[in-house]
What we know:
The N and C termini lie far apart (39 Å). The model has no long low-confidence stretch (mean pLDDT 95). The protein is built from 3 helices and 7 strands. The strands form 2 sheets. It has a 5-stranded antiparallel beta sheet, with helices on one face. A two-stranded antiparallel sheet has the order 2-3. The protein has a single domain (12-95), classed as TATA-Binding Protein (2-Layer Sandwich). It is of the alpha+beta class. InterPro entries: A-D-PHexomutase_C, A-D-PHexomutase_C_sf. GO terms for molecular function: intramolecular phosphotransferase activity. Residues 40-89 form the Alpha-D-phosphohexomutase C-terminal domain.
Amino acid sequence: INDLFRKYGKRVGKQKSIPLNAARERKLKKLIKNPPSHLHDRKVLNMETIDGIKLDLADDDWFLLRFSGTEPLIRCYAESGSKKEVEKLMGFGLELIS
C-alpha cells in the first residue's frame, strides 16, 4: 500500500450528516439548479448535479452535498490531499446551506 501512496499520493476524505430542515432543503435545491462557480476562493472546474451537487476543484479536490435517501438529512462529503484542506472544504461547503 505504501507503493500506491508514493505513486498516487494520499487522499483525505470526510463525511458529515446535517439534519434537514425547510431552509436547508430550499438552499440545496437552489444550489442544484444554480451551481456556484467558486467554493469560497476555489474555482469550480466541473459540476455534477445527478445526485445532489458535486463540485470538482483543482488538485483532484471535491465537495458533494446530497439529500439522504433514507433519513431527513443532508449528506456532506469532501476529499482533498490534506486533513487541513478537507476541513476547509467542508466548512466552505457547509456555508452554502447555512
